[in-house]
Amino acid sequence: MNQNSSVRKLVHCGVVAAIYVVLCLALQPLSYGAVQVRVAEALCLLPVFGAEYIVGVVLGCFLANLLGSTIVDVIFGTLATLLACLVTYKLRNVRFKGLAIAASLPPVLFNAVIIGIEIAVMFPDPTSSAPIWLACITNGISVGIGELISCTVLGVVLVKLIESNAALRKVFATE
């Protein structure tokens, strides 16, 4: 039984990583750039159902960035997703009116800060004379809004859908 459980967790990781990559590449205009709503980021809430989803989401983010973005985003985007998934996992049992809203906030915050700074520092707007700190804030707000849509709207809906459907709960709940 333990070996079956390990295989099942490995399969979950692989499937989640593949779904993340496919969503990013299929929705490429929305997935990359300073203004983005990366639908695949909704998967950052899957650690609510088990720690193995952290590996799947982070691997998916790494591969999606490797295939569709820059090496800088491979490093910092993957780091933001790793930190977000770890904290999301820690907040997995916190609910507001039955919804995993608290678990949706780490991806928003980590990506807004890390990617906001990444864009401002590594890809500055040559037409702007704004100070770097202002560019960090405005980029962070832009990234944060996209993450709110992906995680706090789509991700929370995904968690609620899985939790309220017995068949989906059986597939995703591993702890």
TrEMBL record:
Keyword Transmembrane set for record: yes
Record keywords: Membrane, Transmembrane, Transmembrane helix
Keyword Cell membrane: no
InterPro entries in UniProt: QueT
One Pfam entry name: QueT
Transmembrane segments: 57-87, 99-120, 132-159
UniProt signal peptide: none
PANTHER family assigned: INTEGRAL MEMBRANE PROTEIN, INTEGRAL MEMBRANE PROTEIN-RELATED
Protein's UniProt name: QueT transporter family protein
Organism: Faecalibacterium intestinale
